[in-house]
Design goal:
With about 240 residues, this protein is an alpha/beta fold. The protein has a single domain (about 5-240), classed as Vaccinia Virus protein VP39 (Rossmann fold), CATH 3.40.50.150. The chain is about 40% helix and about 15% strand. The protein has helices spanning about 5-15, 25-35, 55-60, 75-85, 115-125, 145-160, 160-180, 190-200; strands at about 45-50, 65-70, 90, 100-105, 125-140, 205, 220-225. Helix 3 (about 55-60) links the parallel strand 1 (about 45-50) and strand 2 (about 65-70). The chain is globular. It starts with 6 loop residues before the first helix and ends in a 20-residue tail after the last strand. The protein binds S-adenosylmethionine (SAM). S-adenosylmethionine binds near residues 54, 106, 107 and 110.
Length: about 240
């Protein structure tokens, strides 16, 4: 039996490089990740849902090793090109484990609740003993699209790519909207994330600020550390200081 089609994967299979996911956005994520999570330079990272591989390329010099995976073959192919020549980066072979970080940025909204629960369990399986899953750039139920547009407007003006962001976002609006009508983006509640984390033997805490330029979105850090829950909603970097 063939698996049912995933409209969002179909969408991402056809997004050309440079159309969305602009470089300043990846730079912002990497800066915030390094500041908030303070990884060690020997840490091993899996970037799951890596897109074009821009975050992995920027992060690689700060980490021991970085592996990338994306269910969209188009993204894996482009990421492989962008990571060619980066000595400590490669596509994840899906057997390697013991990661210090599994990074999942701006992917949750394209999954279903059942998929997120399954994937959190799978990511937990490949974490090292002190590893963390960093789920960023998702939004809670009731989140307003206007908040995202406002964040994009402010950030793209500040970083000097407003015209390109506007043009490309408008160009993608029809296809993105049509996909969203087929499968509305998923907005998990914190209760759901807590439940999925617990089922996988992890606990979740929440950064005071999202790791990307989308200020209204959230970042959760899932780990085996029992006292992670003590840091719920605490200001970063305390949330990530308990290794
Ligand atoms: C908004 S992009 C984010 C890409 C990258 N993480 C970044 O921040 O630049 C969403 C990515 O999630 C990937 N994706 C969607 N559904 C997925 C799934 N079920 N498993 C793995 N990746 C998925 C898409 O192919 C796409 O590359």
């Amino acid at each position: 039996m063939t698996a049912p089609a995933d409209p969002w994967l179909d969408y991402w299979e056809t997004v050309p490089e440079g159309r969305l996911l602009f470089a300043p956005e990846s730079e912002e994520y990497v800066l915030n990740f390094l500041r908030e999570c303070q990884p060690k330079s020997t840490d091993r990272v899996l970037d799951y849902g890596c897109g074009f591989g821009t975050i992995a390329r920027l992060l690689a010099p700060h980490m021991g090793a970085i592996r990338v995976w994306d269910d969209a073959a188009n993204m894996r192919r482009i990421a492989a090109g962008n990571l060619a020549g980066v000595p400590n980066a490669a596509e994840w072979d899906r057997r390697e484990n013991g990661f210090d970080y599994v990074l999942v940025n701006s992917v949750v909204q394209y999954l279903t609740a059942a998929e997120l629960e399954t994937k959190i369990a799978e990511w937990a399986e490949v974490l090292g003993p002190n590893g963390r899953i960093v789920l960023s750039d998702w939004s809670e139920p009731g989140h307003s699209t206007w908040s995202d547009l406002w964040s994009l407007f402010r950030f793209s003006v500040r970083r000097g790519y407003f015209v390109r962001a506007l043009r490309n976002t408008l160009a993608e609006r029809g296809r993105y909207g049509a996909t969203a009508r087929r499968r509305p983006p998923y907005h998990p509640s914190k209760d759901e994330i807590d439940r999925f984390a617990t089922a996988a033997g992890l606990s979740a805490c929440y950064l005071a600020r999202n790791l990307t330029h989308f200020r209204g979105r959230r970042t959760a850090v899932l780990s085996r550390t029992a006292h992670a829950s003590a840091y719920r909603e605490s200001p970063a970097p305390a949330v990530c200081a308990h290794r």
